Amino acid sequence: MKRLLSVSFILGSACAASLALAGAPARSSNPKPVVAGKAIAPKVSFAEIQRVFNQQCLGCHGVEVTKGKFSVQTIEALIKGGAGGPVIVAGKSAESRLVQFLEGTLKPQMPMSAPPLPSATIALVKQWINEGARTDTAPVETTTRPADQPLASNLKRVPIDVAIPVSLGETKTPSDEVTFAANIQPILLANCQNCHGTDNPRSQLRISSFDTIMAGGKSGVPVKPGSSAESLLVKRLLGEGGRKMPLNGNLSQPDLDLIKKWVDTGAKRGLPESNRGPEMLVNVGPLAAITALAFSPDGKLLAVGTFKRVLLVELASGNLVRTLDEHGGTINDLAFSNDGKLLAVSGGESGGKGEIKLWNTADWTQAADLKGHTDTVYSVAFNADSKKLVSGSNDKTVRVWELPEGKLATTYKDPADAVYAVAISPDGNLIAGGGADKTVKVWKSGAGLERTLTQATDSVTCVAFSRDGQQIIGAGLDGVVRKWATANGQNVANMGHGDRVQSLALSKDGQVLASGGADRNVKLWNPGNGNIRTLGGHTDWVTAVAVNPDGKVLASGTTDGVLRLFSVVDGRLLVSMVFATVAGKPAPEWIHVTGDGYYHGSPDVLKLVRWRIRGEFKTGDPFTALLKPDQVKKALALEKTDPVKLELGAKPVK
Predict the structure, then answer these.
(1) Residue 401: CB partners within 8 Å, gap ≥ 6?
(2) Model confidence over 572-615: pLDDT tens digits?
(3) By the 8 A CB rule, do 180 and 268 touch?
(4) How many CA atoms lie within 13 A of 187 on its CB side?
């Protein structure tokens, strides 16, 4: 159903890094917001660039593995370059080979086996280099490595903290403040993206971010903070002084009222929902990104995909019961067969052979290794009777396999670019695939291409069929969740997630649709296309979501490697889970933390815990009172935990 977009590129003769196609943190293509009539260029810190490197590149370019003698473990290693020499010239992006390969001025353009990175991502990298390839505090001095000095000879893995926000019993009062990030951007993405979200927007007005809105277009800045009556945006939405917008429809009155309130109250930027309260810090990072999730049909197991490894977690206890390690590259997708007998795992290395492995769930022996794809496999899906498996790949094909033999039955070559997501209709008659060509293609099973759905304005990363098969659902990097009528391909609904969508999940009864994205949120939608609630508190991009069979629990995974379980019924964060290799031990160690701060973990991880409260770091008492396995067990059982009572200096927490 979904795919986190990650690609690899080569610098000189060496592979240099793996970057998310979604790029670095969201920024405007015009990075100069207008503030009080003055253009201010925000500085880019290495933290923004490092997040991409840490989550996507360490498998090949860390310490233990340094392909091409190139490491991204530290900024010093990044500046030194690899076997092909330095890739960054601080202060001069035009002379930096990293940028030249990304832009294609040096051939072959990188990444080799995937579409070019978005221009906004490359612009961010260039800005960081032009500003001196800075750390968070100062420019980094560019040094030349002696030819006889191995790159990683003195590098050591430097653990970083994994942050887990907790409430410690404090109740957050929802704010009625209207901001662009929380309230307005989803409306604009859902209704205005087709004309004003492209690389060549109408009237040169882009609605993709707060900065592009405030930069304006041919007709000037469309928003006058404090006065909706004088704002061109509101006038056009009302049909005053020109053509009424949007051209092919009308905003609902609640949406229109919300936009007017936003303008009248100062047109505030706002930030994506985040928990800025107490945090548990666990010094076990950086962790591999969680790139795929799947519940077993009986709801007892959750399969978690990371780099080269699948973790099998028992839901009742939270215990890690097994790992499946015989995989190459990132685990791109996971799917249990409907009869529960097989687990399909897709992945492979970009530019290399694709990988699809089937595992017997009875004893976790390997059932089959499906060979045929010539590049990484992004997505897999079983049909209803578990006798067929469909796969989509970076090799621009969709393939159908017959099971249990694993025989290749059909290959569809219609996609013009990489296929990031596939799905099969409930009756098995239709196959849908979405990808980098910005379309969703629909094939008649056993026949040919039936239709192409073209409304998306960027790569489609997720595809699903509704449970009754009457609708096709798709989402992707333009931040919009779209629904089409299966019968005729008509676009029947658009829902604005708010940022790039990386994953979709549909409950078994079809009553809840979940979307996870780069805004660090999961949004739950009902069949009437309304937003039920937003599940926040994530500390990085949400790259995988799954809903358990009874529809009561949602699992989410993020690029910082944290697994979270939420109650679908009330939106409560049940437990955050971290699995990490500690002290060189082969089996992952673990820690589980409830939303209000109770925790339990393996001894080696518990030694690495500290807390950040009101900006101060703390360890030991009184937080050891929160080490309560019974409370973690209650949260996993969807029960309410006991109230947290802590005395923190002069300010008690409940």
Answers:
(1) 356, 370, 388, 389, 390, 391, 407, 408, 409
(2) 999 999 999 876 677 789 999 999 999 999 999 999 999 988 66
(3) yes
(4) 24
CA distance 114 to 122: 15
- Neighbouring-strand partners of residue 55: none
Q: DSSP characters for 1-28? A: -B---EEEEEETTEEEEEEETT-SS---
At residue 513, the 3 state secondary structure works out as strand
Q: Tell me how crowded residue 329 is: count the other CB atoms within 10 A of its CB.
A: 22
> Which residue do the tokens 């993020």 mark?
558
Distance CA(632)–CA(289), nearest Å, equals 24
- Round to whole Å and give the CA distance between 335 and 61: 29
Beta-ladder partners of 600? 592
Q: Could you state, in order of their start, the residue ranges of all structural domains in the chain?
A: 6-157, 180-264, 581-654
> How would you class 173 by CB atoms within 10 Å of its CB: exposed for 0-12, middle for 13-18, buried for 19 or more?
exposed
**Contact in structure between 290 and 561 (CB atoms under 8 Å):** yes
Could you tell me the two tokens for 22? 């979604």
Cβ–Cβ < 8 Å for 554, 568? yes
Average pLDDT over every residue of 205-214:
81
Is the model's pLDDT at 138 over the cut of 50? no
136 closest CA partner among 74, 51, 48: 48
* H or E, element range at 636: helix 629-636
Q: Assess whether pLDDT exceeds 60 at residue 264.
A: yes
CB atoms within 10 A of CB 132: 16
> How many CB atoms are located within 10 Å of the residue 53 CB?
23
Q: Which of 97-106, 285-294, 478-487, 635-644 is predicted least confidently?
A: 97-106
Question: Closest Cα to residue 515, out of 526, 501, 527, 528?
Answer: 501
pLDDT surpassing 60 at residue 489: yes
If you average pLDDT over every residue of the chain, what do you get? 80
Please state which architecture CATH assigns to domain 180-264. Answer: Orthogonal Bundle (1.10)
DSSP string, 373-397: -SS-EEEEEE-TTSSEEEEEETTS-
Q: Strand pairing partners for 495? A: 481
Token pair, residue 606, equals 């518990």
pTM of the entire structure? Answer: 0.70
d(CA 198, CA 458): 8
User: How many CB atoms are closer than 10 A to CB 352?
Assistant: 15
Report yes or no: 366 and 356 within 8 Å, Cβ to Cβ: no
